[in-house]
């Protein structure tokens, strides 16, 4: 049962969303060896209201490859990518990094708790992501491949490296190629991994996996352009984080390099290319196409 | 060829040490997607001179279970535990945590580079540890079990939770039970995991694994008591980190609770218990016993 897609509400299956929330809640339960304040801060950061785009992408990729019965076995991968996403936000928001005080409409983790807690929350979520994959994906050999895939997307050559370069680029002029290289690692890698993990969890063919990864690459790129556009022209109450911060931190963005109109057109073209990449899936990939269309026109 | 054990030099096989260093160097190579300064900071933190106790424990456990030919297949696990150890030191040293400026005789990562880099170095090492395990341990099903084991030892219910409680205990009186609970998670868990990973990588029996984990538990406990003793009475030039800092940070320690003499005796008893735990291995565990004796009398 899909909600009617509007520019405000993503075309996400409500039952699927509930499944993801329940899995995230369950995976963020800890025994008494985890201090209660740390557990609370982990859940504060992981369970904050979010679109859960990446977990949805995992489950939709699994379904596109293996049909409805492929969804449940892929849930650990959906949880793991959201944990990586949440950890990266908590660490990126730290004073030594992007120094943000608002995230998903609430105080950032280090504002709500303290810096030490926020560092440990990120470490705990990053670690738990691999535990969830390693224990939850079956068989074990597939779980190991999922761990490899996620580690490569989250590591120094992708997410972490992209964040380092993003910080280094503050108050410097960089060109389009460098901007794209940063976003490909900082945002794109986890989008691509989400699709690849879904395909892998569903034991999809190599061809299916490649098509979905190309979809993820184009979608991630479009997502980042729209994110840059929202930072310029969005409404803070909708977006749930401080806006105009790219300019304040001297960050080159797509609109600052290409202008607003060209950025919009580029995002739109990327969405088209994403949808073309998964044409061969036919109706099985229709939810992925609707999600892509939403990403292209989202306002938060 | 073992060096003659003295109180200064650990009884570690020199060829084995060289093998570990080479594996650490190889595992900390990154392609051009990792910014060069980040790669340098990762290697600065991982390759800093260290005893590599944990990697040696992994390899000795593997050898005790499977003989000399079991060593090589366990190397990825040895690398992974050292990466987790190095990451935890980098994050623990941050200003928001223990705020240390000296580590392994050199400026801490955030002093040598900057705080943002140190946060990212820790994140990258933590992530790489799982990549190394997932790709390096064979077969894949065993790699997944190794990832589970390491994630549990490094996560919110162990290492990360122990660090959170350790910070919370500053300038508060805690009793022996609470102190032990902190150390069991902050130090002991990774010692236990090192032994367990070695046994698992070598496909040891359940009984072998249990004996080795008990050895690791006693050894880790003794290690922490000796660490506390060194903080009171060691020589900074030997130990390679600031001393007297437990008192300055208002931390309860074994000597502050039990006195120096009782702490020494307790550590010695724990070493005896560790050695008893692996009696059934006979000569195959002799290097582990020598390592345990060294931990009991080390001065750095």
UniProtKB/TrEMBL annotation, chains A, B:
GO terms for cellular component: cytoplasm. Pfam families: polyprenyl_synt (PF00348). It comes from the Bacteria. Its EC number is 2.5.1.10. Signal peptide: none annotated. GO terms for biological process: terpenoid biosynthetic process. It is an enzyme of class 2 (transferase). Gene3D superfamilies: Farnesyl Diphosphate Synthase. Keywords: Isoprene biosynthesis, Magnesium, Metal-binding, Transferase. SUPFAM superfamilies: Terpenoid synthases. GO terms for molecular function: (2E,6E)-farnesyl diphosphate synthase activity; metal ion binding. Its cofactor is Mg(2+). Belongs to the FPP/GGPP synthase family. This is Farnesyl diphosphate synthase. It comes from Lacipirellula limnantheis. The lineage of its organism: Bacteria, Pseudomonadati, Planctomycetota, Planctomycetia, Pirellulales.
């Amino acid at each position: 049962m899909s909600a009617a897609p509007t520019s405000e509400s993503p075309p996400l299956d409500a039952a699927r969303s509930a499944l993801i929330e329940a899995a995230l809640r369950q995976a963020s339960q800890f025994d008494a060896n985890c201090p209660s304040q740390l557990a609370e801060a982990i859940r504060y950061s992981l369970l904050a209201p979010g679109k859960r785009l990446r977990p949805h992408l995992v489950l939709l990729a699994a379904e596109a490859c293996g049909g409805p019965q492929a969804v449940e076995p892929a849930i650990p991968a959906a949880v793991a990518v959201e944990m990586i996403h949440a950890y990266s936000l908590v660490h990126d928001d730290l004073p030594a990094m992007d120094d943000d005080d608002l995230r998903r409409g609430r105080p950032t983790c280090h504002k709500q708790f303290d810096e030490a807690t926020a560092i440990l929350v990120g470490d705990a979520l990053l670690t738990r992501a691999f535990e969830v994959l390693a224990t939850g994906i079956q068989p074990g050999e597939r779980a190991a491949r999922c761990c490899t895939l996620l580690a490569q997307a989250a590591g120094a050559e992708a997410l972490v490296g992209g964040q380092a370069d993003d910080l280094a680029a503050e108050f410097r002029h960089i060109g389009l190629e460098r901007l794209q290289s940063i976003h490909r690692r900082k945002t794109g890698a986890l989008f691509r991994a989400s699709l690849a993990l879904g395909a892998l969890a569903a034991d999809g063919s190599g061809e299916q996996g490649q098509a979905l990864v190309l979809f993820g690459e184009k979608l991630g790129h479009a997502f980042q352009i729209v994110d840059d556009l929202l930072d310029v022209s969005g409404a803070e109450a909708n977006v749930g984080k401080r806006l105009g911060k790219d300019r304040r931190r001297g960050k080159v963005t797509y609109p600052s390099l290409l202008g607003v109109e060209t950025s919009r057109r580029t995002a739109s073209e990327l969405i088209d290319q994403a949808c073309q990449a998964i044409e061969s899936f036919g109706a099985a990939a229709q939810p992925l196409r609707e999600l892509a269309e939403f990403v292209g026109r989202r306002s938060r």
